[in-house]
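Changelog-adjacent note: as of this version, every example in the card shows the full chain rather than a window. The one below runs 227 residues end to end.
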Amino acid sequence: LDYEAYDKRKIITENKQNTVRHAYYREYRALQHLCILILQHQKHQIGSGTRQIYGILFDGAWLWEEYINALIDEYFRLAYHGQRAKDKTFNAAMHTDFDAEAGILNIVPQEMGRVILNIVNNAFYAVGAKSKDVQDNFSPAVSVSTKKTEDQLFIVVKDNGTGMSMEVKEKIFHPFFTTKGPGVGTGLGLSLSYDIVKAHGGEIIVESEEGVGSEFIIILPAGTGDF
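Full-length structure tokens:
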């Protein structure tokens, strides 16, 4: 009982001192507050005796930790099957090169998944468009890789699609800007992706050559601390 009381006080103190803050997931703060209230009042309990549970040992940062390679791979494949669902004739080679040391990253999985999905969808769209224009001797391909350094993680999405002109490249993160046809793109995907990566303390770099392909490089802090 002494250990349980100490453990409970420790979790309450840590969560009071480290309030959950995030640009998108503000509801986590309310959840954290609720869990603290549960821990502070033993009347919220399940079971009895040694099986009694007084609440939830809650660590808000845990909600953001994610094995980044697994997350990227999941959304990479999701994007591919999404393209296939829209166009049964679509096909592209998929390549991955994940750094085994990438490990766990302190992110909001749903938000970073949206970033990966948006960028990979654009890559598949670009190789699909090029396939229709250059039908001979063209093998559409999209690759995703990760590389971890001491303090940063690099996520690279590369395609051999249509590429972009310098003029287009300078505008791709502007809200509502799109090169896709009516009803195909809203022009918000990359703009939102840019904001999400910024909120995670990172940045997006774009390299592209018209007619050759594009490379999107997402750079994120490699630690699992607060952002």
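Structural remarks: The chain has six helices and seven strands.
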